[in-house]
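Re-run with default settings, no changes from the original entry. Doing this only to confirm the output is reproducible before filing.
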Amino acid sequence: MTTSPVERAADHFVSALAQWRVERGMTKKQLAARMGFDPSYVSHVEGRRHKPTEDFARRAEAVLAAGGAIWQRFQEYDELRHARGPVLHRDPPVPAQWMPPGTGLIVEQEVAELTYTEGAYRCVIRRALYNAGVEPVTRYLVKISVDRYPHDPQGSNRHHRQHPLSFEEMDLRAVAGEGAATEPMQWRLKLDRDAAKEVWLLFANDHGQFPLYPGERTTIEYAYTVGEEKWGQWFQRAVRLPTRNLTVRLNFPVEFEPQVWGVETSLAAEVPVRTPLERHNDARRAVFEWSTDAPLLNARYRLEWRFRGESAPTTPDEGVPKPRINGQERRTNGHELRASQRMRGIGIVQRGADLLRQRARHFQLPREEAAARDAVAGLRATLERLEGLHDFSKGVGLAASQIGLAVAAAVVRPPERGAESVVLLNPRVVDESSETDEQYEGCLSFFDYRGLVVRPLRVDVEHARFDGTRVITSFEQAMARLVSHEIDHLEGRLYVDRMVPGANLVPVEEYRQTGQPWNY
């Protein structure tokens, strides 16, 4: 019987491996051969007779193209394995450049920069390519799309039918090579729609062809322009080829007072980007940069922004009066900007993501004090952004899983304005009152509805300080409810799990207690 956290994590890794192997239609023998292992190796790992290594996990992830799911399960297992004590046997070294046989084209580095200048956005994409395949590469597919109203697909479609994107305005240009060896690239149309274009960049021009042969490297760069009236306030990079490094830059005038955040969408979940954005000012320009050394195959990395300066251009959702329902803004083009969409827009993980159903990992304090402080800082920053979206008169809490961190940290802001927020690290309920009450709750990860939930009127919670010392704090009434809600998140539970079977959720538009505290 599996008893320890390490064994459970190993089971989760094996389950993910087997699931994706079956999904890809491979036998254990076929997978082992593609990974470059002995035919019996996969059988031994799936049968728990061999422990997975980093090399094995990386190769399985690469061959099965699991969108990071297999690699994530290995990291969870490896972290627990190291946390419980010294590892007696070191994993074999990982071949730094190993890729599955016949992988084909690899993006060794991508740098994507979007610059706003005089009413238009200029996008420049630079990719360092390596041909790891067995055939010469003669063309490269580029996809370009715009979406003026990303939260209103029908409105955006209408807008782009009336104002289609054209190649004349885009001024698409592409080159290959470095320095004196740079060659202009011709392109051939593949798809031409109002809001989307696809073209083949050809390793050829009027002077001849210059294919990228197996084992060779080159750099391609392409650029295009889109007017602000067609470009929504987002910039997305989709990882369609194995990629070793991805960097995205946004370049705006300082006087626009830009605010930027990022979201990562993979096959497993939608979460805030896992590494922070950096900003610096350069000659009246605000430059935001985000990078990752491990972009997931098939993932999408999306940066979004808003301008707060008076001199900034009108945003897609501005300039039109917005009627309000119970304090919630509503779009006037026929479609509401749902409450959950506003939460997602600032990086709150939404219901349906696997992360919200996972038990959070406890910090090893004080050894992991820095990591705990970083998590709490991220929670506080997100709560600050939330204040501009909703009137949290009942108080508000946020768990680390809701901002994409699978660690046991939460921050709770009491209903009383000006009261100091409560930080919870590694919390667990050790006692609760027999007296309960039933109140409507909402959840930032499920903000389109409210539901009646029974909670104790008092909970005693054991939790840790950053230095590792443990304390017990008693919370009553509203704070007891808020704290219990966040601890549920850290245990992989949502408030709907505590509702009476058969009870109905109330759409936020019909909820009549927005802006009012709970009654006691």
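Residues 317-336 have pLDDT under 50 and may be disordered. The radius of gyration is 26 Å.
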